[in-house]
Amino acid sequence: MTSPKPVLISGAGLASLLLARSLHRSKIPFLVFERDASIIFRAQGYRLRLSAQGLDAIESVLGPTSFQKFYDACGKTGGAGFAAINPLTGETLGGETPSVKSEPLASRDGKVVGISRGDMRKLFMEGLEDKVRWSHQIKGYEETANGVRLVFVDGSKSEEGSMLVGGEGVKSEVARQLSNGAIKVYDLGSRGIHGQAPTTAFKGLGEGVFRLVDETTQPNGGKVFLITNVRADDMNNPDVNFGWTMGGSPGVIKAPNDNYTITGPPAAQIAKSLTSHWHERVKPLFDNMVESEAAFWKITCSSPNGVPEWANDPRVTLVGDAVHAMTPAGGNGANTAVRDSALLGRLIAEAWERGDADHWTGVTEAYEKEMRVYATEAVKASYGQAVGQFGVKIDLENGPTINEYVAPN
């Protein structure tokens, strides 16, 4: 008997690795292909807030024992919602921050649950290291008589797989090819910076999830927006850094070359210059930054109209940011991505049990039908919150995108 062809997974982000974990648990062969040289190639240290649905999806994939290990690694913060701080006066505000509505944050056991992206990836990949092929940048794919192969930028090709799942993020070549350019990711013009500092820098805040908005001192009516999570259990641990995420309305956070490569001291200096006039209660977050961990980023979003339609292919589908990129507003992106992994992994496993691994009849169609519903809702919610928080607006006809598609000749 011949061995069954593996499921090919492009990209080693959260959705891809959780899907790989699901397939591994069902004893379904797979291979993951990632452009980076290793899991620590790029800074991935900022924290993600996990919703109740996100945690449920992860738990369904990992199973009781592995999920408990994952949950133990998560940070838990008390408080049901954001506490607002005026960054100019240092005052803790009552009610809602100007221009920003409050939202519930607690997801399990009455706690706000979060974990760094890097730690999530390591936990999802644990024990699967021999199935990840690093330094493979994807150019596209080709279908064969009985399967599919990935094509890499150096001209080489993967072994033949039975299915391909594209999960390389917002610039996914698999997504461009599969959707014939229908999936568009818009550059909102808003920019952000991730930063970290020792726990001592956060002692003036106390425990909680804090939101700071400076909308009175920035040029041209712009604003700077910052969120940070201070966990009581880690407050006195000198080996832990807390992180913060800063966003700015279009034109406020400016970088020399406006790309993703700005990390370290140059990114840190941008954050420090924007907050140099802030109150001494919050200044330590920037004055004591671990500058090497700072990173500049662009705020992007898929069309707020939702996940588009494309001709279904029983051998190829998409997960995570490759199919539904979101702004950081509301923390929807990662939680929607892990829902993709849980759903698709379950459908693949059910087909595997039926003995349908040669054709995967109906798997991608059923997955995409269900995914479009919840992902469209999540993208719309994320974009709607970003309009209020960052002052952005997408021009669906002429707005700049970061994944322009050029059809093959």
UniProtKB/TrEMBL annotation:
> What keywords are assigned to this protein?
FAD, Flavoprotein, Monooxygenase, Oxidoreductase
Any single GO molecular-function term of the entry would be:
FAD binding
Residues of the FAD-binding domain:
107-381
* Claim: Nucleotide-binding is one of the keywords in the record: no
What InterPro entries does the record tag this protein with?
Answer: FAD-bd, FAD/NAD-bd_sf
Which co-factors does it depend on? FAD
User: Is this entry keyworded Flavoprotein?
Assistant: yes
According to UniProt, the name of this protein is FAD/NAD(P)-binding domain-containing protein
Can you name the source organism? Decorospora gaudefroyi
